[in-house]
Amino acid sequence: MFFQQYAAPHATLSYFFGCAGHGKAVAVDVVAGEVQRFLDAAVAAGVRIEYVIDTHLHADHLSGGRRLAALASARYALHESNRGIVGFDFEALAHEQVLQLGNVELTIMHTPGHTADSVCLRVSDLRRGAAPWFVITGDTLFVGAVGRPDLAGREREMAGALYDSLHNQLLCLPDELEIFPGHQAGSACGAGLSGKPSSTIGFEKRFNGLLTLDRDAFITQVVADIPPPPDNMAHVLAANKAA
Predict the structure, then answer these.
(1) Which residues contact 44 (CB under 8 A, 6 or more apart)?
(2) 26-48, pLDDT tens digit by residue?
């Protein structure tokens, strides 16, 4: 497996990884203006981009995912709950669906809370074994923080869904598993994000204070700490949904 993490505008972290042996790759959370970076990386690695995935419909930045997919003749993918919401065709992802990229295997985890369509990607390198190697957590779990729950306008309901996604899914993964989030410090998508671009499940369990709270306390704390909305949020969301 090869793996690359890219820092992009809006404190966004994007990902490009796959199986060099079979020449297959996936790009995750591509930011508009960064598309050529992925095309160049694919040429340098000698791989074809098979999938371009957005972990959710972004509210803080314009996505470059559809443009990259078109230029690379790849499949652009979102969670299936976006059917009827967006004005374009996409590859619909379902919970526990497996995507195969040679020796690299991605398992989709539907983790609503930050948004209703949020997904995380559990990734295995089958040459090392079937156990997951790392998880891309999108805007569900950050280093030292969690995603904001207010973008759908139902803060307490979504904060409860976020708690359930964290405790029933992500925190059930092995403590040693690495996490790679969708943002680092400076993002408006959560409060108190670390500038560190990765962590582990076990480290977050121990040092991320929000993860030690019971459900009611978690909801109260997360709702109280919502940062100001991202700049031009309505425009960005509309553009990311538009045909």
Answers:
(1) none
(2) 999 999 999 999 999 999 999 99
Strands 75-79 and 91-93: parallel
DSSP bridge pairs for 4: 16
CA distance linking residue 190 with residue 141, whole number of Å: 9
The dihedrals phi and psi of 78, each to the nearest 5 degrees, come to -140, 165
Beta strands in the chain (DSSP E): 2-8, 12-19, 24-28, 48-53, 75-79, 91-93, 98-101, 104-110, 119-125, 134-138, 141-142, 145-146, 178-181, 199-200
On whether the pTM is more than 0.90, the answer is: yes
User: What residue spans define the domains of the chain?
Assistant: 2-237
Pairs from 198-203 (Cβ < 8 Å, separation ≥ 24): 198/5, 198/143, 199/143, 199/144, 200/175, 200/176, 201/135, 201/170, 201/171, 201/173, 201/174, 201/175, 201/176, 201/177, 202/175, 202/176
Place of tokens 């591509």: 30
| Band (183; pLDDT cuts 50, 70, 90) | very high
Which residues, 6+ apart, have CB-to-CB distance to 128 below 8 Å? Answer: none
**The domain made up of 2-237 is a member of CATH 3.60.15.10:** yes
Identify whether the C-beta of residue 220 lies closer than 8 Å to the C-beta of residue 226: no
Sign of the four-CA dihedral 151, 153, 159, 162: negative
- Residue that the structure tokens 């499949």 belong to: 75
